[in-house]
Amino acid sequence: MTGLFTGTFARGGAAAAVSDHAWFRALLDVEAALARAAASSGLVPATAADAVADACADPSRLDLATVVARAADAGNPVPPLVRALQDAVGERDAVAVHVGATSQDVLDTALVLLARQAVAAVDADLAAAAATCAELARAHRDDVVMGRTLMQQALPTTFGLKAAGWLAGLDGARLRLAEVVASLPVQYGGAVGTLAASSGAGVAVRAALAGELGLVAPAVPWFTVRLPVADLAGALGTAAGVLATVAVDVVLMAQSEVAEVAEVGEGRGGSSAMPHKRNPVAAISARACARRAPGLVATLLGAMEQEHERAAGAWHSEWPTLTELLVTVGSAASWLAESLRGLRPDVARMAATVTAAGEGPLAGALAEALAPSLGRGAAHDAAAAATREARESGRPLAEVVAARSDVDVAAVLAAAAPDVGEAGAQVDAALAEHDRLTEGERG
Predict the structure, then answer these.
(1) What's the confidence (pLDDT) of residue 409?
(2) CA 74: distance to chain centroid?
(3) What is the pLDDT of residue 357?
(4) What is the pLDDT of residue 443?
(5) Which of 79, 268, 391, 427 could form a disulfide with 74 if both were Cys (CB 3.0 to 4.6 A apart)?
(6) Tell me, what's the pLDDT at 267?
(7) Distance from C-alpha of 235 to C-alpha of 295, rounded to nearest angstrom
(8) Can you tell me the distance from the alpha carbon of 235 to that of 300, in angstroms, rounded to the nearest whole number?
(9) In the chain, what are the helix, strand and coil shares in percent, each to the nearest 5?
């Protein structure tokens, strides 16, 4: 993506990992690895394979402008790229170019190489966001905040538990992506998957090619069984959902009327019309990028239905779609990592909201304590009077109750204290799991 919206929707390392330059680099890496694999299987001379690998390593020797110009005529860029390679190495060594392969072998393998590289960039930002969530969970383990369900105040929880929930989601998304990347397969089947053009060495070439590129060697080609692409789409879509959930929490908590968190970023968040505003731009942008993911995932899943041995159209639709999905999820991850780095929780504001919402339970506890001496009706009226006094004087109800001498103040306040259950223990468990998952990363 280039132009006016690049800064928002093509942010982070994933965009660079799937650029046109990166695509060419991946296609050439596959052709070079294929030449070496064919040589190791005895199909072509090692000197010819070396010549092809050298040409692939130096794209300036290739007429890539013609490849771009003729890609649409061929239906994909591989046929003109093969011709450019053959021209670059000469007739003698051209025997090692594109050995036994079809265009889909090279494109599919290049696609998974690109995806692996882009997912690494996405993962780096997911890891950064998760690390910040771990810091927030640890620092705010016991700081109360109002829990909200169906967009309404519910019961108190802790900001530590909220951050631990974010952390668990991000760690889970990373694990799913890692599992998919670890299983990415090479593609090598020839025209219709029979390996007929590989002179009986096709299975060996496939294994050698997989070894060269660090991919899995499948038992059969996956030309029209698009599980690798669908798995990538699913894991990326899941990651986008997690990112969007964290981002929208930040956006809602940063609302002026709530103001429980704020994004702090130099020169960011202003309004064109209202100078006083400080918008949580990073969280908003993360949400915007993540919102694009479901449609792209749906396109890739819809493209799974492919006919016979090679698809007409559905396969082709995957290239730009998966590229865009990697970019948008990578951008969302990059934005969220920045949002969380600059997040400033206002624990006093959080506690005040819980306290304000706790006046009901405190009034009830006061009435319950007064009932034995005053009777139910009079105790209710006394508690109501204390509530009115607090509101009219602008003091917290707890302060009004503390001034009374007709009840056990400590017991009343304890009975109305926020109950956050086992929040702290769950934060500790999430942090322990995060530490276990990232032990190797922390060295």
Answers:
(1) 85
(2) 35
(3) 82
(4) 57
(5) 79
(6) 54
(7) 14
(8) 12
(9) 70, 5, 30
Backbone angles phi, psi at 210, to 5 degrees: -60, -40
pLDDT above 70: percentage of residues in the chain: 96
Q: What is the mean pLDDT of the chain?
A: 93
The predicted-structure confidence for 378-436, as pLDDT tens digits, reads as follows 999 999 999 899 989 988 888 898 999 898 988 888 887 888 999 999 999 999 999 99
Q: Which tens digits make up the pLDDT trace of 304-331?
A: 999 999 999 999 999 999 999 999 999 9
Coil, helix or strand for 248? helix
Non-local CB neighbours of 267 within 8 Å, separated by 6+ positions: none
Across 239-262, average pLDDT: 97
Q: How many residues does the chain have?
A: 443
Q: Please, where are the H alpha helices in 75-102?
A: 78-93
Rounded Cα gap, residues 299 and 329, in angstroms: 15
CA gap 133, 164 in Å, rounded:
7
Q: Please, which residues have CB within 8 angstroms of residue 426's CB and are 6 or more apart in sequence?
A: 161, 164
Q: How far apart are CA 157 and CA 52, in angstroms?
A: 62
For residues 222 and 378, what is the distance between their CA atoms, to the nearest angstrom? 79
Cα–Cα separations (whole angstroms), residue 204 to 43, 180, 217: 10, 24, 10
Report how far residue 308's alpha carbon sits from residue 315's, in angstroms, rounded to the nearest whole number: 12
The SS3 call for residue 87 is helix
Which pLDDT score is estimated for 414? Answer: 82
Catalytic residue positions, numbered: 271, 310
Judged on CB neighbours under 10 Å (0-12, 13-18, 19+), 293 is buried
Q: Which long-range contacts (CB under 8 A, 24 or more apart) does 411-419 make?
A: 411/369, 412/362, 412/365, 412/366, 412/369, 413/362, 413/365, 415/361, 415/365, 415/368, 415/369, 416/358, 416/361, 416/362, 416/364, 416/365, 418/144, 418/156, 418/354, 418/358, 419/155, 419/156
Instruction: Yes or no: say if 14 and 122 are a contact pair by the CB < 8 Å rule.
Output: yes
Per-residue HEC secondary structure of 375-433 comes to CHHHHHHHHHHHHHHHHHHCCCHHHHHHCCCCCCHHHHHHHCCCCCCCHHHHHHHHHHH
By DSSP bridging, strand 144-149 and strand 343-345 are unpaired
Both tokens assigned to 315: 């396969």
**Confidence band of 438 (pLDDT split at 50, 70, 90):** very high
Q: What 3-state DSSP class applies to 117?
A: helix
